């Protein structure tokens, strides 16, 4: 793996770090398996891309993307909480609907941003290579968002949200409005995912309606993988573990892309990635057992 | 602590491996990185066309040509990672097959020459600003089907036809730009367009059935989703005696009545020619974006018999291939 490929994997891992945080929030904190992310990731990309191509400020476009993602989360939560549709099914409905909505938002399946000013454009004039400065900038934003998220989850409302996910009956018995908590949590979760989508489109130069496929899989791999490699009960450790998982996943893909030297072909990529991630998951357990024996 | 050490050792050894391999790849031969969004007969045929053309001119894969072929398995994030891998490996030239792969390559590399193929609208995709003088490090060949010639073929074979059904996937950039052009062209040729959409292959059957009884002919553009499930459209055509025309020639063998198009293999060969010129020292920015000029008419006699259509002699003479029943 070359340095540029390595940094590229880090950059994508950091961008998908926002997705990992979002999935952590829905899947771990709210105990809500949420497939909406497959639609809210491209939604974020679509909204930002349309705004930017229309001549708007890229930061405003990114904020609009975040807001749109939040709304997608609210719709899913509303179907689950108010219409009493099963969580998973509600999120599937949102995911399917968002495919059409994303096409509507963009007006066509692919919007290119290769020639437009994005949030990354000011960084390109710096004397440092973009391969280094892009991931650094995303890292700064990601650390900021992670710290804010930690602060929120340790606030009074955050604790109420965690209680809602842990034991809804007990939470509402203690006077917590669990419906509001699910709505707010899902909004925040999908807002984070949409932020990831908006940044992805801007760093990669295009928004495509198909780019959301499998977002949930990557998100879950990051959350579950990261947490099993870095176990810990505190929110800070857990969120950092998710980010670590996201970066590790991308590194594994980068390694898989270089696997031709052992006779593997391009079509084996997903299998190799799955094996590498699986290996990374069982490795620590295997070592622990050996040490115990 | 232990865990961290293992991980860094693992990463270290992998990076070392990569560097050693990159060293071998650059020794004494031309290196070509190929990034392709997904494996699919048409895209594979274009890749083969490129490799065959290069081989004829002395760049033989495994000998004087080192090929690093990567396919993103339909995932745009992986396409981005492949582009970054090439940005780091610095092959002599990158071949990007399909729009998303080309966009990812263009975003990641500003110096390495990039040649795209199987891109329908490079202006819309912002790969180039000017088709005649692309500038920068990128040029290529477009796969825009000759829609006007194809509509004219339907008009000539079926002078009475009025309503023309088209099935496409609204999620494919290439299809949407074809549909927009069809909408522009059809009134001039006396067609009224009836559009149906399918977002995945399982929906194609339903979409095709909804056309039965509403249209006089069906046209299938170059659309990955519809072409993957072409048999569903063909069956509807057979059952309702509606002629099915396709934008790509390969589909006629699968039961469409006729197509006036180009082969992806030929497009690949034309792309290969462009690559040869760049390897000879020309700059990609100076090479105009190419279109495939050679059109071939292919007819299916079995389908004609099925729907009770007698192919006029003039078309039989024109056809480069008539598929026997």
From TrEMBL, chain A:
<dbReference type="Pfam" id="PF02653">
    <property type="entry name" value="BPD_transp_2"/>
</dbReference>
<feature type="transmembrane region" description="Helical">
    <location>
        <begin position="131"/>
        <end position="153"/>
    </location>
</feature>
<feature type="transmembrane region" description="Helical">
    <location>
        <begin position="236"/>
        <end position="257"/>
    </location>
</feature>
<feature type="transmembrane region" description="Helical">
    <location>
        <begin position="6"/>
        <end position="27"/>
    </location>
</feature>
<feature type="transmembrane region" description="Helical">
    <location>
        <begin position="88"/>
        <end position="107"/>
    </location>
</feature>
<feature type="transmembrane region" description="Helical">
    <location>
        <begin position="59"/>
        <end position="81"/>
    </location>
</feature>
<keyword id="KW-0812">Transmembrane</keyword>
<feature type="transmembrane region" description="Helical">
    <location>
        <begin position="206"/>
        <end position="224"/>
    </location>
</feature>
<dbReference type="GO" id="GO:0022857">
    <property type="term" value="F:transmembrane transporter activity"/>
</dbReference>
<keyword id="KW-1133">Transmembrane helix</keyword>
<feature type="transmembrane region" description="Helical">
    <location>
        <begin position="269"/>
        <end position="286"/>
    </location>
</feature>
<protein>
    <submittedName>
        <fullName>ABC transporter permease</fullName>
    </submittedName>
</protein>
<keyword id="KW-0472">Membrane</keyword>
<dbReference type="GO" id="GO:0005886">
    <property type="term" value="C:plasma membrane"/>
</dbReference>
<dbReference type="InterPro" id="IPR001851">
    <property type="entry name" value="ABC_transp_permease"/>
</dbReference>
<comment type="similarity">
    <text>Belongs to the binding-protein-dependent transport system permease family. AraH/RbsC subfamily.</text>
</comment>
<feature type="transmembrane region" description="Helical">
    <location>
        <begin position="174"/>
        <end position="200"/>
    </location>
</feature>
<keyword id="KW-1003">Cell membrane</keyword>
């Amino acid at each position: 793996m070359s340095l540029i490929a390595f940094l590229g994997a880090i950059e994508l891992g950091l961008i998908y770090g926002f997705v990992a945080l979002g999935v952590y929030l829905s899947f771990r904190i709210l105990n809500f398996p949420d497939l909406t992310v497959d639609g809210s990731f491209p939604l974020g990309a679509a909204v930002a891309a349309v705004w930017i191509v229309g001549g708007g400020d890229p930061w405003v476009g990114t904020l609009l993307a975040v807001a749109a993602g939040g709304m997608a989360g609210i719709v899913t939560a509303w179907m689950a909480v108010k219409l009493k549709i099963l969580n998973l099914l509600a999120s599937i409905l949102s995911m399917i609907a968002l495919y059409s909505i994303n096409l509507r938002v963009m007006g066509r399946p692919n919007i290119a941003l290769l020639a437009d000013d994005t949030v990354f454009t000011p960084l390109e004039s710096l004397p440092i290579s973009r391969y280094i400065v892009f991931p650094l900038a995303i890292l700064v934003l990601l650390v900021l968002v992670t710290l804010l998220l930690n602060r929120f989850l340790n606030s009074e409302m955050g604790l109420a949200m965690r209680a809602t996910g842990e034991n809804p009956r007990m939470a509402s018995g203690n006077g917590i409005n669990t419906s509001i908590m699910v709505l707010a949590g899902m909004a925040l979760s999908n807002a984070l995912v949409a932020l990831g989508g908006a940044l992805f489109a801007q760093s990669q130069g295009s928004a495509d309606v198909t780019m959301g496929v499998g977002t949930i899989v990557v998100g879950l791999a990051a959350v579950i993988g990261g947490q099993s490699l870095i176990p810990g009960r505190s929110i800070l450790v857990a969120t950092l573990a998710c980010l670590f998982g996201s970066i590790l996943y991308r590194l594994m893909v980068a390694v898989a892309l270089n696997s031709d030297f052992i006779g593997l072909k391009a079509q084996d990529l997903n299998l190799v990635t799955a094996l590498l991630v699986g290996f990374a998951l069982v490795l620590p357990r295997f070592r622990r057992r050996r040490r115990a024996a | 602590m232990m865990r961290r050490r293992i991980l860094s050792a693992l990463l270290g050894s992998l990076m070392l491996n990569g560097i050693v391999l990159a060293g071998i790849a650059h020794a004494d031969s031309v290196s070509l990185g190929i990034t392709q969004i997904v494996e699919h007969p048409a895209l594979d045929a274009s890749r083969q066309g490129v490799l065959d053309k290069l081989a004829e001119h002395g760049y033989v894969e495994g000998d004087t040509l080192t090929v690093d072929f990567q396919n993103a398995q339909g995932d745009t994030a992986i396409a981005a990672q492949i582009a970054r891998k090439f940005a780091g490996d610095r092959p002599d030239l990158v071949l990007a097959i399909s729009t998303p792969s080309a966009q990812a390559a263009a975003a990641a590399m500003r110096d390495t020459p990039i040649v795209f193929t199987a891109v329908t609208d490079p202006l819309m995709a912002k790969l180039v600003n000017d088709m005649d003088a692309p500038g920068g490090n990128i040029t290529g060949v477009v796969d825009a089907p000759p829609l006007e010639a194809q509509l004219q073929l339907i008009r000539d074979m079926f002078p009475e036809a009025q309503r023309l059904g088209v099935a496409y996937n609204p999620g494919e950039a290439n299809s949407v730009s074809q549909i927009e052009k069809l909408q522009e062209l059809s009134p001039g040729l006396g067609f009224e367009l009836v559009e149906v959409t399918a977002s995945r292959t399982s929906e194609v059957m339903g979409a095709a059935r909804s056309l039965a009884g509403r249209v006089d002919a069906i046209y299938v553009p170059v659309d990955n989703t519809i072409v993957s499930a072409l048999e569903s459209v063909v069956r509807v055509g057979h059952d309702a005696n509606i002629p099915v025309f396709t934008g790509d020639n390969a589909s006629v063998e699968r039961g469409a009545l006729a197509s006036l198009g180009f082969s992806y293999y030929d497009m690949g060969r034309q792309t290969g020619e462009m690559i040869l010129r760049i390897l000879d020292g020309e700059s990609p920015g100076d090479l105009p974006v190419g279109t495939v000029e050679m059109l071939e008419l292919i007819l299916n006699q079995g389908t004609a018999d099925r729907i009770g259509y007698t192919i006029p002699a003039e078309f039989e003479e024109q056809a480069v291939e008539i598929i026997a029943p």
